[in-house]
């Protein structure tokens, strides 16, 4: 009979998490990098006391915003290629609800994070408690139910012994390459403090290693036959290549078969941009080189990508009527999208198995010449876009060029929503796996700074550079203070175009009037004159406002010698975007409008939709 250990439910959670391990570089390390906690009445007495007991084996970090700390946890997991992760705990009510947006980020991007919000009293004796959401028709509902649709697994713990199967199921989901995503264990606050005689085996050290699923032999044969007949195939590499740690397998496959590679936002850096067969970004924010080859491709080998609309140009990018997709993905849901030939398996194992089937088959030298010419033409456009000019205000692309020139080989670039991701996807030159960290699956404004903190925790030796617009900065900047407090140095470049410049350009592009995006076009009595330098300095960082691209480069180089987070602010032009490259994106334009500009945009929209399939 298994011996038992009498613990509170919260103590059982902390002890279990502390004893889950993984193997990295022949070393056994904790799979949980720590717990982010903002305490309240729903978790401070129960889980707070438990985390204090295990603070050496399972570090607890205090943040300033629940959404921010969850973003940091998600970025940590992404930067660790899903091999390690973090947990987050909040009180009930607004603290828990603040994590819903971040849970959406993790859900869409297939990233592991363990959410441990406090909940109402299971015994209901003091109901309604502070921050309790009461449903007039359902006594089982709490605020935490909002986390259900953005959790891969959700459980509410109303008895202390329920945590035993819940923890086992949670870690299975968090470490499963196909199911991976956010897990929510909603912890009733009275039950956190209740004791139970737990089996000691629950707390034994367990080492979790990634499952390397092999392909079905019939699916492998079909994929190999399709590829061997192709004349113009293209590989689209997604985030799954990085999460599978299959970058070497991708490079070997590409080189052996002379196949060009295009990359999604999540997949960028899987192959260095400088590689002779790397076409760079694909889709709406793609390079002219990648999109030209994707348009004519007869076979698209989609590796580890969920093929979202920015990748496929809203499914209007692929112009070859006979084009066939091979969906090499560990998740069947993604592998079979758009009538793809599914190849359900681990990315690395799948590429190795497929190259074995293809043998000596490879594309001819004409492919090499086409890729070389297309890349050379694109690089001319990219260099022109990023080069300094005498304009009063620089473009986003010119700021990107300055950051690229001023930062070293150990830089990891972090960004998320707005206009910057589109420019970075095209223009940033990535040199090593994971050095390009973009959250663009959910395109979540506010991820950037908190995400940079998570990346720094996962990759402490990297020079983590965050690029963020003024709109996202204003939404969530409090983790600057957290980075200073934790001694996790970031370099943050704030591009101030005085509004939501990206959406303003989209508004203009669809025929709309400039309205409610740039600050000058909003309903206002006084235009705010925000001093981001002073604000960032007040949060404890070193901060500068620079007047030129040259000054920006100087400030970036000086930041390397600073002892804490540095924020550099530069004014930019809200109307300029890189015209080279890119592809149409389906944004519905009104069928009826009093504006002639909208009617013209609708006619163009209807023409563009004819290419969708």
Major sheet details: 6 strands, parallel
Strand proportion? 15-25%
How many extended strands? Answer: 23
Number of domains: 3
Offer a concise description of the structure.
By secondary structure, this protein is an alpha/beta fold. The chain is built from 24 helices and 23 strands.
Tags for this model:
Rossmann fold, 24 helices, 3 domains, six-stranded parallel β-sheet, alpha/beta, 613 residues
Polypeptide structure, described:
With 613 residues, this protein is of the alpha/beta class. The protein folds into three domains: 4-208, Rossmann fold, CATH 3.40.50.970; 217-377, TPP-binding domain (Rossmann fold, 3-Layer(aba) Sandwich), CATH 3.40.50.1220; 387-571, Rossmann fold (3-Layer(aba) Sandwich), CATH 3.40.50. It contains 24 helices and 23 strands. The strands form five sheets. Strands 5-4-6-7-9-8 form a six-stranded parallel sheet, with helices on both faces. A six-stranded parallel sheet has the order 14-13-12-15-16-17, sandwiched between helices. Strands 19-18-20-21-23-22 form a six-stranded parallel sheet, sandwiched between helices. Strand 22, helix 23 and strand 23 (566-571) form a beta-alpha-beta unit. Helix 1 packs across helix 2, helix 3 (66-79) packs across helix 18 (447-458) and helix 8 (217-228) packs across helix 14. The model has no long low-confidence stretch (mean pLDDT 97).
């Amino acid at each position: 009979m298994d011996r038992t250990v009498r613990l509170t439910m919260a103590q059982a959670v902390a002890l279990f998490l502390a004893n889950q391990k993984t193997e990295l570089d022949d070393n056994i390390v904790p799979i949980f990098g720590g717990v982010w906690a903002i305490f309240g009445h729903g978790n401070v007495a129960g889980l707070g006391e438990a985390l204090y007991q295990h603070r050496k084996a399972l570090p607890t970090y205090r943040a300033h915003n629940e959404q921010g700390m969850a973003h940091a946890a998600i970025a940590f997991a992404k930067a660790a290629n899903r091999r390690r992760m973090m947990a987050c705990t909040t009180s009930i009510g607004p603290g828990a609800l603040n994590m819903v947006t971040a849970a959406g980020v993790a859900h869409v991007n297939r990233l592991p994070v363990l959410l441990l919000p406090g909940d109402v009293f299971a015994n209901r004796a003091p109901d309604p408690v502070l921050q309790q959401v009461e449903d007039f028709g359902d006594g089982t509902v709490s605020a935490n139910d909002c986390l259900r649709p953005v959790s891969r697994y959700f459980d509410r713990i109303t008895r202390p012994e329920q945590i035993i199967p819940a923890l086992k199921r949670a870690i299975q989901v968090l470490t499963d390459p196909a199911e991976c995503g956010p897990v929510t264990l909603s912890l009733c606050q009275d039950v956190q403090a209740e004791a139970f005689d737990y089996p000691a085996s629950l707390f034994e050290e367990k080492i979790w290693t990634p499952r390397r699923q092999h392909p079905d032999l019939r699916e492998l044969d079909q994929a190999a036959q399709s590829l061997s007949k192709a004349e113009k195939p293209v590989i689209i590499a997604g985030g799954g290549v990085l999460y599978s740690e299959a970058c070497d397998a991708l490079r070997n496959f590409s080189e052996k078969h002379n196949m060009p590679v295009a990359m999604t936002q999540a997949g960028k850096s899987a192959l260095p941009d400088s590689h002779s067969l790397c076409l760079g970004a694909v889709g709406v924010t793609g390079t002219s080189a990648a999109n030209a080859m994707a348009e004519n491709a007869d076979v698209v080998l989609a590796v580890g990508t969920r093929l979202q609309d920015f990748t496929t140009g809203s499914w209007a990018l692929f112009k070859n009527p006979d084009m066939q997709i091979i969906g090499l993905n560990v998740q069947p849901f993604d592998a079979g999208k758009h009538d793809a030939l599914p190849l359900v398996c681990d990315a690395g194992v799948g590429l190795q198995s497929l190259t074995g089937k293809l043998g000596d088959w490879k594309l001819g030298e004409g492919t090499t010449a086409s890729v070389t010419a297309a890349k050379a033409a694109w690089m001319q456009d990219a260099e022109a876009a990023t080069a300094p000019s005498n304009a009063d205000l620089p473009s986003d692309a010119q700021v990107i060029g300055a950051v690229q020139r001023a930062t070293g080989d150990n830089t990891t670039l972090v960004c998320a929503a707005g206009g910057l991701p589109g420019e970075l996807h095209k223009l940033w030159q990535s040199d090593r796996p994971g050095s390009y960290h973009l959250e663009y699956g959910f395109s979540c404004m506010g991820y950037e700074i908190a995400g940079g903190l998570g990346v720094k925790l996962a990759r402490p030796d990297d020079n983590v550079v965050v690029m963020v617009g003024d709109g996202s900065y204003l939404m969530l900047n409090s983790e600057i203070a957290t980075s200073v407090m934790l001694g996790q140095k970031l370099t943050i470049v704030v591009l101030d175009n005085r509004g939501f410049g990206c959406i303003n350009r989209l508004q203009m592009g669809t025929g709309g009037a400039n309205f409610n995006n740039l600050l000058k076009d909003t309903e206002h009595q006084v235009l705010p004159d925000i001093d981001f330098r002073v604000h960032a300095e007040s949060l404890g960082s070193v901060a500068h406002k620079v007047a030129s691209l040259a000054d920006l480069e100087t400030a970036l180089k000086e930041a390397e010698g600073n002892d804490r987070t540095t924020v550099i602010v530069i004014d930019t032009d809200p109307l300029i975007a890189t015209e080279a490259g890119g592809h149409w994106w389906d944004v519905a334009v009104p069928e009826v409008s009093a504006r002639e500009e909208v009617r013209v945009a609708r006619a163009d929209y209807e023409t563009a939709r004819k290419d969708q399939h």
